[in-house]
Amino acid sequence: MPHAIVPSRRTGAPVVPARRRGPRWARWFLGVGAALMTLSGVALGGSQFLLHAATSKVTRQNLLGSAAASRQHRTITGAKNILLVGVDTRPHQDADQLTRSDSIILVHIPADHTRAYLVSLPRDSLVDIPAYDNGATPYRGGKNKINAAFAFGSRGLSGAAALSHGFELLALTVRDLTGITPDAGAIVDFQGFRQIVQVLGSVCLYVDETTTSIHIGHDRNGRPAAPYKINPDGTLHNKIPGVTPNIYRQGNHCLNPTEALDFVRQRDLLADNDYDYGRQRHQQQFLKAVLHRVMTDGLNSPTKLPGLLTAVGRTMTVDDGGIPLEDWAFALRGIGPDAITTIRTNGGSFNSRAVPGVGSAEILSPTSMELLRAVRHDTVAAFVQEHPSWVAPPGPDTPTD
User: Fold this and answer.
1) What's the CA gap between 205 and 292, in Å, rounded?
2) Which architecture characterizes domain 20-210+249-390 according to CATH?
């Protein structure tokens, strides 16, 4: 079970930190939702040594492939769009599921580089996936859920090849859907975040809806046991008798590495029945909570900082689009937490339809397509002004232990 927050000795209330302006690398971390995240600030007061130490830990790879803009003479000026993909490399699953994308986020940076907009594309969104030959198992193309693009692109491959081809087909699918050619891309491995939390010790956050785990629980003797059988596609099958699942109840909690990863994976048994919309929100809250812990503890600890940079580097694979990571870092150093806006496609409401051969899929509404056109044309601020209810409300301040 998650560890309850220790209340204030003076008031008895959960301790909530005061807001403060973080170092520039931390603001970049938050601004892209976790992708090129440690980079800019490890500038920590302008330290080129720490910035180099951070960027040297990040895995560089050509992910965008044919979906990328020309890399000749690329500069950091102007509006930028980053394709951020979260994968959940769960153990004991086949290769197809290991490269299935769980979170797909377009990070839009306006031309003045003063804000960041995060637009999440539901993984069940019905899209046209183009034909693609990865050299191992060609895909003929067709209508399917958008997260299947990553799996189709990576079929028959493993390791770096699976990541690059899976990401390329997903990027091509997003480009065909939106007309947006990403300027950079990144894969964030949520399993790798367990290593970050291990270095930090725990991560504290506000659980906004009671969440029941389908992956972790204990039997009658208190021994760890899986509480549910899971279908091959990762969905819920049935409850296993005699096993009690972990329950993350609404409220402030500090989670250990196993609990933190388990919480952000859940989509089936959420109290508000918001499924992928809920999981997307929880992953964003988790990333912000990790950021807070890094800022308040990790950066100030000579013993934790080296391991922290190594763990973060192992958590992501980045395609910088031909623009050095250091340039990304310094150009976006002015984006603070208050300048980050998360926008919900379909206004955060379900718009599902049964599709033969696909199952229940999410249909992006005309207004969602209008939002994606605003991202393409750098008019998101005007869209937000016209559709304020589509902006995800900020959650409670990140708690601390």
Assistant:
1) 10
2) 3-Layer(aba) Sandwich (3.40)
Which H helix or E strand runs over 129?
strand 126-129
What average pLDDT score do residues 231-251 get?
88
Q: Quick one: pLDDT at residue 187? A: 86
Q: pLDDT band at residue 286, thresholds of 50, 70 and 90?
A: confident
Alpha-helix residue ranges (DSSP H) falling in 155-248 = 159-178, 193-200
pLDDT (0 to 100) of residue 401: 56
What pLDDT is attached to residue 8? 35
Stronger pLDDT, 306 or 80, i.e. the higher one: 80
Distance, CA of 321 to chain centre:
19
Place of tokens 């209330």: 13
What global pTM score does this model have? Answer: 0.77
Higher pLDDT: 376 or 57? It is: 376
Provide mean pLDDT across the span 166-181: 95
CA distance 183 to 93: 32
Give the pairing of strands 184-189 and 80-87: parallel
Query: Which spans in 245-274 are helix H?
Result: 257-265
pLDDT of residue 316: 78
The answer to whether residues 213 and 205 touch, using CB atoms and an 8 Å cutoff, is no
Residue found by looking up tokens 């086949």 in the block: 94
The amino acid that residue 363 corresponds to is I
Domain spans of the chain? 20-210+249-390
| Ramachandran angles phi, psi of 256, nearest 5° | -80, 175
* % the chain with pLDDT above 70: 74
Q: Is 307 exposed, middle or buried (0-12, 13-18, 19+ CB in 10 A)?
A: middle
Angle at 180 between CA 177 and CA 184, to 5 degrees: 125
Three-state SS at 232: coil
Rounded Cα distance between 82 and 226, Å, is 36
Closest alpha carbon to 248 in 284, 292, 278: 278
Pull the structure tokens for residue 348: 């955060």
* Concatenated DSSP letters of 315-351: HEEEE-TTS-HHHHHHHTTT--GGGEEEEEGGGG---
Residue 384, helix vs strand vs coil: helix
